[in-house]
Amino acid sequence: MADVNTGGGSSKKKGNKPQAKKLSCRIDMTPMVDLMFLLITFFMLTTSMIKPQTMEISVPSKKKVDAQDETKVKASRAITVILGKNNKLFYYEGTQINGVDPKVQPTNYGPDGFRKYLIERNIDVMTKIRDLRKEREKTKMADTTFERKAAKLRADINAPTVIIKATNDASYKNLVDALDEMQICNISRYAIVDITPYDLGLIKDLNK
Amino acid sequence: MPKVKVKRKPTAIDMTPMCDLATLLLTFFMLTSNFIQKEPVTVNTPSSISEIKIPERNVMMVLVDKTGKVFFGMDGKQNRMDLLEKMGEAYSIKFTKDELKKFSTINSFGVPIQKMKDFLALPNDQRDRKENALGIPADSTNNQFKNWIKAARSINRDARIAIKADQKTGYPVIKKVMNTLQDLDENRYNLITSLEQNPDKN
Questions:
Q1: Neighboring chain B residues of A194 at a CB cutoff of 8 Å
Q2: What is the pLDDT of residues A93-148, one digit of tens each?
Q3: What DSSP letter does each residue of A22-75 carry, written as one string?
Q4: Which of A49, A59, A166 sits opposite B182 (nearest CB)?
Q5: Residue A171 to residue B168, Cβ atoms within 8 A
Q6: How many beta carbons lie within 10 A of that of residue A76, not counting itself?
Q7: What number of CA atoms fall less than 13 Å from residue B133's CA on the CB side?
Q8: How far apart are CA A188 and CA A162, in angstroms?
Q9: Which is higher by pLDDT, A72 or A176?
Q10: Do B199 and A53 touch (CB under 8 A)?
Q11: Minimum-distance CB partner of B170 among A47, A111, A171
Q12: A28: chain B residues, CB-CB within 8 Å
């Protein structure tokens, strides 16, 4: 491999001329290897192989919508989540009915907190999506087909709608976590809405 | 009786295959990777389960650090030059060719446009210093950030906007950025997150 070919290896004597001994000069490859590994190390340290993950969100346009085009959320299906300070989280169902305030429940970002509740509320969609996943494993469904079907299931009219309201004390992580819960619980209808004084009043005693 | 000396052959390993291997690995790394982009601030992104990858090109990157400073970056050398020229026109600051060229090498920046000239005059190694990471003004009274986005959008119609904010960034700052984008009718954007396992997958 590293032998440099120096002409014929034939040891035919021509006449009786003494022939100079052909030395195959071998090149020592070790420094070359050292260099290569140095370069590799350099590349490994200065490059990033992974592209960052992203989460897509789309917000409603600010353009004025007609009152009739506005999507009205049915109170029975609405869940309002309030992101408080110090990673606190509150939710309530529906809205104020006949002057009676909805009951605010404190919860947390853990798997047994808000996620458990959301999965309970959205159990129909969740089970359908799980079945669809099983079906995908069985039938080797294409990803695009799966996504299309899943989106159709998520758009179920009876699925809950979540309204996310963040207080000024919430951090970006809280917001992303809340949006993440929507993804985990397959909720396709959610909105990030500015918090109202009414909501702040509701959680005043809890958010300390 | 003299000892019989066993002649030891020096064990010379042929390093050639090793070299081949190293070259192969090197080539692989060179072809499959992209250099880590320098960012003016370190940002720890929160994690999420979504697995959408961000495109390589046509990205406007909005960085928000934990103190709420806003930084902006765009890809494409020519785009960057056009961008600075546009902003210069908007704020009636004349940038020289040299400055435009310098600006085109900067990945993301965070200085008010009034200080851009001084910022570009700095040598390369001083630009990344902490004191030069001032952040772009994004208040309602002086919303330069909005103008940057507007100019960038007019240069590159199909660029995606990606927001990369720190976990600890307060919500009001994020809201400010989001509202600015909403004002410009940019209603779809990506939030850059790190990956987390989906608990429902298994």
A1: 175
A2: 877 777 777 788 888 888 888 888 888 888 888 888 888 888 888 888 788 888 88
A3: ---PBPP-HHHHHHHHHHHHHHHHHEE-SPPEEEEEE----SPPPTTTSPPPPG
A4: A59
A5: yes
A6: 10
A7: 20
A8: 9
A9: A176
A10: no
A11: A171
A12: 15
Backbone angles phi, psi at A192, to 5 degrees: -100, 120
Q: Beta-strand (E) ranges in chain A?
A: 47-48, 53-58, 78-83, 89-93, 105-107, 161-166, 190-193
CB spacing of A54 vs B45 below 8 angstroms: no
Q: From the candidates A176, A179, A187, which should be mutated to test the interface with B, based on the most B CB atoms within 10 A?
A: A176
* pLDDT of A4 above 60: no
Residue with tokens 């050639």: B16
Burial A45-54 (b: 16+ CB within 10 A, else e): eeeeeeebbb
Could A63 and B185 be called an inter-chain contact, meaning their C-beta atoms sit closer than 8 Å? yes
Amino acid, single-letter form, for residue A60 = P
Three-state DSSP class for B35? strand
Residue A200, C-beta contacts closer than 8 angstroms, at least 6 positions apart: A167
The pTM for the full model equals: 0.76
Please state which of the ranges A8-12, A107-111, B19-23 shows the lowest mean pLDDT: A8-12
Phi, psi (5° rounding) for residue A97? -120, 125
Distance CA B169, CA A168 (A): 11
**A162/B contact by beta carbon, under 8 A:** no
pLDDT band, very low/low/confident/very high, at A66 (cuts 50, 70, 90)? low
CB nearest A54 (choices: B26, B34, B190): B190
Read off the pLDDT band of A15 (50, 70, 90). Answer: low
Q: Do A130 and B49 touch (CB under 8 A)?
A: no
Neighbour count for residue B43 (Cβ, 10 Å): 18
Encode pLDDT of B77-106 as tens digits: 888 888 888 888 888 888 888 888 888 888
Interface of A with B in 100-139 (CB under 8 A): 111, 115, 126, 130, 133
Question: Which chain A residue shows the shortest CA-CA distance from B22?
Answer: A36
